[in-house]
From TrEMBL:
This is Glutamate--cysteine ligase. InterPro entries: GCL_bact_plant, GCS2, Gln_synth/guanido_kin_cat_dom, Glut_cys_lig_pln_type. Pathway: Sulfur metabolism; glutathione biosynthesis; glutathione from L-cysteine and L-glutamate: step 1/2. It comes from the Bacteria. It comes from Mesorhizobium tamadayense. The keyword NADP does not apply.
Length: 457
């Protein structure tokens, strides 16, 4: 999320919070695709991490991008921490360890998503390469320790950094040493949201497996294919995970609100200052618990929007659904991730088929998949088969959905070609992580340094 929200409308009751989510309902012709992708900046000389300040730091890249694009700066305590397109059509933001993120515009087709990604990468390279900086497309930082990783001067991250060690063993790794590709998708009604939420929660471990791309930590194999997936197993289980209540047949907006109300907060913003609210749940905040803690200590709709952005389930509900399971990766993966989920969820026939395929899957089975995938990838077991076997059926449904959408580019090609990189994973039977590990043990000679050349933007 590039910019935290300020909306001073007071909250009168829980019904307003439910209504906030329900306001995301959109007719099908208004459905859009919003793709986010993160990457690790590094100095080509020595493959070292890039700090915020200095003539060749993250700030210099942001200032160069601002001059090039004409986007509005996002400031925090007088420091530039991001950029936003003036009409809201995209933003650039920083993750805690300097991971550089594009939050893409809401677009109609995967073709547009790929053009957007290409343009962004070309623009950022134009600014960064004269500074001796390139970007790495992986799900986990392969070389630098937590102590070696820079910290970005962003107020919300200072609060999170203090809080994370209190609620899990891997929260700081999540913040500072992981990258993802995500896609944000719309729904037309509460029923449509429920169907998409349930299908995508069940299939999120498969997404993690297909995109597994983080096998190294501190210059050595970490024993995992998706270190990032493993990190999310013990980051902050109060605000993350599969959310068993979402599997209920009558799950709706109000259920998500009731859960969110009892998750501890991170912050509220008053007069541009971030106040630490980690002692309170949002329900306690609504009951007046912070009345003496912060100026105007009653909640606003802006506080609610910000709180929703600090919840980290595998599929996050806001006024759209966020698919959060995939590791970061190279350019082709930036296009493949939205193609995968759009194919499954944006065509009625495909959604029916995906729902039928997964209808008998239980929460416990999905959770077992989630726990097995970080180590085993697409070889993770499921019932009497593996996720590789499941992948064939799921990708066939996604391909059908994209074909049915029939969104063609100027050369007459539809969106199905963007799934090819995932078809290759299934055909090979090995993930990107396994391919990297094979290279590490053979042609890389036991060194992870070549990853900075082969997986760089």
């Amino acid at each position: 999320m590039a910019r935290d929200t300020t909306d001073f409308q007071p909250i009168e009751g829980i019904d307003e919070l439910v209504g906030y989510l329900a306001a995301g309902n959109k007719p099908r012709d208004k459905w859009r695709i919003g793709t986010e992708h993160e990457k690790f900046p590094f100095y080509v000389d020595g493959n070292a991490p890039v700090p915020y300040g200095g003539e060749r730091g993250i700030r210099a890249i942001l200032e160069g991008m601002q001059e090039k694009l004409g986007w509005d700066p996002i400031m925090d305590a007088g420091r530039i921490i991001g950029l936003v397109e003036p009409t809201g059509q995209g933003a650039i933001s920083l993750e805690p360890g300097g991971q550089f993120e594009l939050s893409g515009a809401p677009l109609e087709t995967i073709h547009q998503t790929c053009r957007e990604g290409n343009a962004h990468l070309a623009q950022v390279r134009e600014i960064a390469e004269p500074l001796g900086i390139r970007f790495l497309g992986l799900g986990g930082s392969p070389k630098w320790s937590l102590a070696e990783t820079p910290k970005m001067p962003k107020s919300r991250y200072e609060i999170m950094t203090r809080y994370m060690p209190k609620v899990g063993s891997k929260g700081l790794d999540m913040m500072y040493r992981t990258c993802t590709i995500q896609v944000n998708l719309d729904f037309e009604s509460e029923t449509d949201m429920r169907r998409k939420m349930q299908v995508s929660l069940k299939l999120q471990p498969l997404s993690t497996a297909l995109f597994a791309n983080s096998p190294f930590t501190e210059s050595r194999p970490n024993g995992l294919q998706s270190w990032r997936g493993d990190i999310w197993r013990d980051t902050d289980n109060q605000r993350s995970g599969m959310l068993e209540f979402c599997f209920a047949p009558d799950f709706g907006f109000a259920d998500y609100v009731e859960w969110a109300l009892d998750v501890p907060m991170y912050f509220v913003i008053r007069d541009g200052h971030y106040h630490d609210m980690t002692r309170f749940t949002f329900r306690q905040f609504m009951a007046g618990a912070a009345r003496n803690e912060v100026p105007e200590g009653l909640p606003t709709m802006g506080d609610w929007a910000n709180h929703l952005s600090t919840l980290f389930p595998d599929v996050r509900l806001k006024r759209f659904l966020e698919m959060r399971g995939a590791d970061g990766g190279p350019w082709r993966r930036i296009c493949a991730l939205p193609a995968f989920w759009v194919g499954l969820l944006y065509d009625a026939q495909a959604l029916d088929a995906a729902e039928a395929l997964t209808s008998s899957w239980t929460y416990q089975e999905a959770l077992a998949m989630r726990n097995a995938v970080p180590e085993h990838g697409i070889a993770a077991p499921f019932r009497n088969a593996t996720l590789r076997d499941v992948s064939r059926d799921v990708l066939a449904i996604a391909r059908m959905g994209l074909k049915n959408r029939a969104r063609k580019n100027r050369d007459g090609y539809d969106e199905t070609s963007f799934l090819n990189t995932l078809d290759e994973v299934v055909a090979r039977g090995t993930t990107s992580a396994e391919e990297m590990l094979s290279a590490y043990h053979t042609r890389w000679g036991g060194s992870i340094e070549p990853v900075f050349m082969e997986y760089a933007y």
